[in-house]
Each structure stands twice: as structure tokens, then as C-alpha cells.
Amino acid sequence: MLPNKNLVERILHAVCFEALALLICVPALTLLMDQPPLTMGLLTLAISLTATLWNMTYNTLFDRLQKRLGFKRTLWVRVWHTLGFEAGLMAVVLPMAAWWLSITLLEAFAMEVGLLLFFLPYAYVYNLVYDRLREAGWLRRRRMAA
């Protein structure tokens, strides 16, 4: 069992997650959306910051709701939690992307669906690799200390 992450590690985890995602998404979106790299870089950075702030806000509110109502995080609760997060994020990101790129809301929605299809496996693989690297490093430090 690995120890809990402290605040510094949580920040490092989030920053590395977003930085790697930007390195992948900016070139891909530049090609797919036929936009200049700076335009797509600034937009993806804005989306990243928005997603990070929304994640912190949404999960804090969700945790308070769970504490107040006392429900368990079953599969369906997690599904609804995820859908609620994505719906809230889309409510902010779609108008922002449409305005930024001078595209329609439908085109912005298509871009967001593409990003979602990227981020689902990306988040899974990133966290799997991160956890394994973390565990290997922690186990090595623990063996050396013993």
C-alpha cells in the first residue's frame, strides 16, 4: 500500500499531466483545426487551466454533497460524477473555444468530443504509468532505508 500523496506531489502530478497533454494536443489540434500553433497553444492552455480549476471546484462540491447525503461511490455514482464534471466543463469550454477560434458551437462541440476521446485513454495510461513509477520509486527508497 502506497502512502497518501501530499500537496506537493498532487501539484506535481497535475502539472505533469497537463504539460504532457499540452505537448500532445497542441500539435494535433494545430493540424486538425488548421490554426496557428500559438492560437491552439493558448487555447489548450486556457482549457487546461479551466479544467484544473473546475476539477478542484467540482470535486470539493461533490465531496460536500456526499458528506451531507451520505451516499457511497458506487459505479453509477462515479458515472454520474464523471458526466456532471464533463457537462460543467463543456458549458464553459464550448463558448470559449467557439469564440477563440471563430467557429460555431457545433464545431467546438466536435473538437471537445475529440478531446474527450483523447483524454479518457490518456488519463488512464498516465495514471497507470505514474502509479507504477511512484510505487517503484517508493519501494526502492523503502528498501534502501531498511
TrEMBL record:
<keyword id="KW-0812">Transmembrane</keyword>
<feature type="transmembrane region" description="Helical">
    <location>
        <begin position="113"/>
        <end position="133"/>
    </location>
</feature>
<feature type="domain" description="Chlorhexidine efflux transporter">
    <location>
        <begin position="73"/>
        <end position="135"/>
    </location>
</feature>
<dbReference type="Pfam" id="PF05232">
    <property type="entry name" value="BTP"/>
</dbReference>
<protein>
    <submittedName>
        <fullName>Bacterial Transmembrane Pair family protein</fullName>
    </submittedName>
</protein>
<feature type="transmembrane region" description="Helical">
    <location>
        <begin position="12"/>
        <end position="32"/>
    </location>
</feature>
<dbReference type="InterPro" id="IPR058208">
    <property type="entry name" value="PACE"/>
</dbReference>
<feature type="transmembrane region" description="Helical">
    <location>
        <begin position="38"/>
        <end position="58"/>
    </location>
</feature>
<dbReference type="InterPro" id="IPR007896">
    <property type="entry name" value="BTP_bacteria"/>
</dbReference>
<keyword id="KW-0472">Membrane</keyword>
<feature type="domain" description="Chlorhexidine efflux transporter">
    <location>
        <begin position="6"/>
        <end position="68"/>
    </location>
</feature>
<keyword id="KW-1133">Transmembrane helix</keyword>
<feature type="transmembrane region" description="Helical">
    <location>
        <begin position="79"/>
        <end position="101"/>
    </location>
</feature>
